[in-house]
Structures are given as C-alpha cells and as structure tokens.
Amino acid sequence: DAGVIQSPRHEVTEMGQEVTLRCKPISGHDYLFWYRQTMMRGLELLIYFNNNVPIDDSGMPEDRFSAKMPNASFSTLKIQPSEPRDSAVYFCAVTKQGAYNEQFFGPGTRLTVL
Amino acid sequence: AQSVTQLDSQVPVFEEAPVELRCNYSSSVSVYLFWYVQYPNQGLQLLLKYLSGSTLVKGINGFEAEFNKSQTSFHLRKPSVHISDTAEYFCAVSDPVEYGNKLVFGAGTILRVKS
C-alpha cells in the first residue's frame, strides 16, 4: 500500500478564493483525521471521521471550513473563502479499530494564502 | 483532561553524543504512548510505541523510550545521535476512555544535531 496520499502538496492562492485539499486514506483504515500545523499553534485536530461519518468537528475553526468523506477512499477539506491566517500545513492521518489509535500520517499540503 | 508536556522546546546536541527528550502526561488508568518524528517538509512518522508489557520499548533509527507509570513519563533516548536525527519529535498519548479515538500530542521538541 502506498500510504496516505494527499494532494496537492503545495497550494498558493489569493485571499477570498476557495481551496480544496484532498486525502486518499490507506485501505482498511476506518478512521480519518484532518490536522492543521502552524508555528504559533502547533498541531491541531480539526475533524475526524469513522466509517465516512464525521464524529468530532469541534476543532474546525469556523464556518469557512468544511470536510467531507463521500466514501472510504476519499476525503476533502474545503476552505471558502480563504484568508491569510489559514496558511499552514494540513495533514491527513488514519487509524483503524484495534490499533490503539496509532495513526499514519500523509505528507501534508502546504497552503499559502496571499 | 489528558495533557502531554514536552519539557524542552529545543535540544541542541553534538553528533555522537547521547540525547534524552522528555515527555510527561497526566495520569490515567490506561494509556497508550507514542513518539513520532517529523523531518523537514514531511509528515509525522512513528518512531516507537508503548502499548503494554515491557516498559522499555525500542524503535527505529536506534531510539528507545521508557514508560514510567509512577512518574507518568515516557522519555525518548538515543545513545549516539547523527546529523540525520535533526528533526522535530512529538510525544502522543491515547486515552480511549477519555478521548476515544483521538491522540493528544505534545507541543514538540526540536532536536538540532551539530557537527
């Protein structure tokens, strides 16, 4: 298996534009997490899914952020409209039931909002 | 609430010297403990984990960690570091009773290995 795949790896956009980040999880891993990492705030959990259903979205900063998991092979994190303070590295991670919550991370998407 | 404290934000060390990165967590009945490493411009990669059994666990790249229940600590050690160990290291705790399937991460420790 190729591991967690994220795209794009880098995204530069202008304030006000819509941004969509994508994640392809490892097959058979039924929990998917979206994190944001910044120098100021460190690693923050935004939302996580179990079997494609959102379980906890308490970390989503505001209504401009939304996440979906239409099937077990794909998830998106959307920011609309984007703002400069959204600039960060966004990670997708997965785990599976019985794995003691050991998570496998993707390589991340570095987002820059100008 | 579960919390994870990494006592040092940065640790500078010379190549071939030993290093210890400290991690303390708030007490709970049953926790699982992890150390992750993040190299520049990469995702987090698992170094090692403690689930049960022997309190000394060995991981990749020559790292090891010791679970100390009475001290609620899980310090990471390496007897001789290399330049390539320069990275950020994160301690993480899984507390299924309190946090379900989430991991609680420490703030990270940047290890800088100097020649």
Task: Summarize the structure in words.
The complex is a heterodimer of chains A (114) and B (115). Chain A is mainly beta and 114 residues long. Chain A has strands at residues 5-7, 10-13, 19-24, 31-38, 42-50, 53-56, 65-71, 74-79, 88-95, 104-105, 109-113. The model of chain A has no long low-confidence stretch (mean pLDDT 95). Chain B is mostly beta strands and 115 residues long. Helices cover 3% and strands 51% of the residues of chain B. Chain B has one helix at 96-99; strands spanning 4-6, 10-14, 19-21, 23-25, 32-38, 44-50, 56-58, 64-68, 73-78, 87-94, 103-105, 109-114. The interface between A and B is medium-sized, with 23 and 21 residues.
Quick synopsis:
The complex is a heterodimer of chains A (114) and B (115). Chain A has 114 residues and is mostly beta strands.
State the main characteristics.
heterodimer; A: 114 residues; mainly beta; 7-stranded mixed β-sheet; 4-stranded antiparallel β-sheet; B: 115 residues; 6-stranded mixed β-sheet; 1 helix; 12 strands
Q: Count the helices of chain B. How many? A: 1
Spell the H/E element sequence of chain B.
EEEEEEEEEEHEE
Head-to-tail CA distance between termini of chain B: 41 Å
Largest sheet of chain B: 6 strands, mixed
Helicity range of chain A: under 10%
Distance between the termini of chain A: 36 Å
On the 0 to 100 scale, the average pLDDT of chain A is 95
Could you give the topology of this structure?
The complex is a heterodimer of chains A (114) and B (115).
Chain A: E1 5-7, E2 10-13, E3 19-24, E4 31-38, E5 42-50, E6 53-56, E7 65-71, E8 74-79, E9 88-95, E10 104-105, E11 109-113
Parallel strand pairs in A: 2-11
Antiparallel strand pairs in A: 1-3, 3-8, 4-5, 4-9, 5-6, 7-8, 9-10, 9-11
Chain B: E1 4-6, E2 10-14, E3 19-21, E4 23-25, E5 32-38, E6 44-50, E7 56-58, E8 64-68, E9 73-78, E10 87-94, H1 96-99, E11 103-105, E12 109-114
Parallel strand pairs in B: 2-12
Antiparallel strand pairs in B: 1-4, 3-9, 5-6, 5-10, 7-8, 8-9, 10-11, 10-12
